[in-house]
């Protein structure tokens, strides 16, 4: 039996089962249609699949990629129904070209001529709202699931989270007796967590997954330009030893996968020049067919390598510019660069789809999810404050009842100051890597025009307040009774207020340093300087010479 993955919206229930189809089953049309196909399927427990069944699982996942693809737009407008595969060795300008087309013109990039969209220049509309460049290393907030990330994007675009639509889909699935595929939902949850290796569901049974970075190595070789002769092979490490482990091999690129990726158009580049641009289904004159079971990407780089061109005495870039394919593409470019008759400039009444208040609410919702699901950040600082408060209270036990002169008061104040500084430094140091990890995502979303800088910054400032409030409350609850200071509303308030404001100051300084510096390491250096300045000029009386 071999599991199959239908193209269906995942659900958050029944995370053990999957549908299995007989490997030797006949096609539905040959044996009773859909009823016979349904009869050959059964629900199996994915945790009990053997190594061979896992092998078949990933094989079918790759070979049936064309059937699993869901086409959302078909012949929407003239030539939109196409996909171009861009290939080339490292450093030939693939990424630079794609970034330039999406409006990200690098300062070091020398541009000759003009870049237009349907005849309109960059300054006539906002290219970020019509095109985007998404890197293969593209990241999103690791604490948010894929569905929540899409909901956040929908909120920023004014669409809403579509929760009612999802509930309606789930309701109709139950009425029709459709069994959702839990393994798809498990995969989505795991790959939505950056570098997550284990996933716990409500039965507390761990599943070991191969990192998504290893799986997309199948595509790295097409985009980054690494050596295509290397074939990744990752053996199942726990498949035979742990029945609860779910692992799979990453296999070399198959022809079916490559065909699915370039079934529209393909663009072959070498350094600073185009070698070939055409439809993948076209037959190139005097070019033999690719050998059976030969890696297509390796074949392309082999025939266009400098050694092959030197052996043949040919320059494929020059030959392409003299061919009829180049002339046809030039005619197509000239046709597309001319605005159609009666068309108008693409303009937007506002820079952002939503007003400032809606942007702030969406960013605050996103920050609340991110902070709530970050125990390594929040629980760590809560535990740190709790332990330090207990130690501080033990050191100054009942000192409030033993005040006999001014020196005793100053001793308590010095101890409180040192403790506050120590706790503030811990907060600032912990917030630096947490905020720096989100900066790449923020840059991408801001460039796409999802929200303004102040909306995100204000949400980031507001979300820190309840966590800092709880830290200050823990400090007050442990230290004030232990020191046994004078009990009054005003004194307790000012004791709490001073700690609350100092922790906010340190946290906000960490946010500021990450925003002003290009890297986390540089922000840490400036944070160390800030620590020394606050220690020297905040509380100590420096005697004169």
Structure characteristics:
3-stranded mixed sheet, 10 strands, ABC-type transporter activity, 3-stranded antiparallel sheet, ABC_transporter-like_ATP-bd, 20 helices, mainly alpha, 545 residues, 50% helix, ATP hydrolysis activity, disordered N terminus
First-to-last CA distance: 87 Å
The unreliable regions are 1-17, 23-32, 186-257, 260-264
Structural class: mainly alpha
Mean of residue pLDDT? 69
Tell me the major beta sheet: 3 strands, antiparallel
Tell me what portion of residues adopts beta-strand conformation. Answer: 5-15%
Helix content: 40-55%
Report the count of strand segments.
10
Radius of gyration: 30 Å
Shape: elongated
Write out the strand line-up for the largest beta sheet, numbering strands in chain order.
Answer: 1-2-3
Number of helices: 20
The overall number of domains is 2
Question: SSE order in H/E notation?
Answer: EEHEHHEHEEHHHEEHHHEEHHHHHHHHHH
GO molecular function, one term: ATP binding
Pfam families: ABC2_membrane, ABC_tran
Keywords: Membrane, Transmembrane, Transmembrane helix, Transport
Biased composition (Polar residues): 12-22
């Amino acid at each position: 039996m071999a599991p199959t993955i239908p193209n269906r919206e995942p659900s958050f229930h029944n995370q053990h089962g999957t549908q299995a189809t007989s490997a030797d089953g006949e096609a539905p049309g040959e044996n009773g249609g859909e009823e016979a196909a349904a009869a050959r399927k059964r629900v199996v427990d994915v945790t009990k699949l053997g190594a061979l069944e896992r092998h078949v699982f990933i094989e079918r996942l790759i070979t049936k990629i064309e059937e699993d693809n869901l086409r959302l737009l078909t012949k929407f407008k003239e030539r939109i129904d196409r996909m171009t595969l861009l290939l080339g060795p490292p450093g030939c300008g693939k990424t630079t070209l794609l970034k330039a087309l999406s409006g990200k013109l690098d300062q070091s990039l020398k541009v000759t001529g003009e870049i237009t969209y349907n005849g309109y220049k960059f300054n006539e509309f906002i290219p970020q709202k019509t095109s985007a460049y998404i890197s293969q290393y593209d990241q999103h907030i690791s604490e948010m699931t894929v569905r929540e990330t899409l909901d956040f994007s929908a909120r920023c675009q004014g669409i809403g989270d579509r929760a009612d639509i999802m509930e309606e889909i789930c309701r109709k699935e139950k009425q029709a007796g459709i069994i959702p595929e839990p393994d798809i939902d498990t995969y989505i949850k795991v790959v939505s967590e950056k570098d997550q290796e284990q996933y716990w569901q409500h039965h507390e049974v761990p599943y070991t997954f191969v990192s998504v970075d290893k799986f997309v190595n199948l595509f790295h070789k097409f985009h980054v330009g690494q050596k295509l002769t290397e074939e990744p092979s990752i053996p199942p490490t726990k498949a035979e030893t742990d029945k609860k482990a779910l692992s799979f091999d990453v296999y070399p690129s198959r022809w079916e996968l490559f065909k699915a990726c370039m079934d529209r158009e393909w663009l072959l580049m070498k350094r600073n020049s185009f070698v070939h641009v055409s439809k993948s289904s076209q037959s190139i004159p005097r070019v033999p067919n690719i050998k059976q079971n030969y890696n297509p990407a390796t074949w392309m780089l082999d025939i266009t390598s400098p050694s092959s061109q030197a052996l043949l005495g040919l320059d494929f870039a020059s030959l392409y510019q003299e061919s009829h394919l180049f002339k046809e593409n030039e005619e197509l470019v000239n046709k597309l660069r001319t605005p159609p008759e009666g068309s108008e400039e693409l303009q937007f009444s506002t820079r952002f789809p939503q007003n400032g208040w809606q942007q702030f609410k969406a960013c605050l919702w996103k920050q609340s999810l991110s902070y709530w699901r970050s125990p390594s950040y929040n629980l760590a600082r809560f535990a740190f404050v709790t332990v330090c408060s207990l130690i501080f209270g033990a050191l100054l036990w009942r000192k409030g009842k033993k005040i006999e002169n001014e020196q005793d008061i100053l001793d308590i104040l010095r101890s409180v100051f040192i403790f506050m500084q120590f706790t503030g430094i811990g907060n600032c140091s912990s917030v630096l890597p947490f905020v720096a990890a989100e900066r790449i995502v923020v840059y991408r979303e801001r460039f796409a025009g999802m929200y303004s800088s102040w909306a995100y910054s204000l949400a980031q400032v507001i979300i820190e307040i309840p966590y800092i409030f709880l830290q200050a409350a823990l400090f007050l609850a442990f230290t004030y009774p232990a020191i046994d200071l004078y009990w009054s509303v005003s004194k307790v308030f000012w004791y709490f207020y001073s700690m609350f404001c100092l922790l906010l100051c340190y946290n906000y300084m960490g946010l500021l340093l990450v925003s002003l510096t290009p890297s986390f390491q540089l922000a840490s250096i400036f944070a160390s300087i800030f620590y020394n300045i606050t220690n020297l000029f905040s509380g100590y009386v420096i005697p004169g010479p």
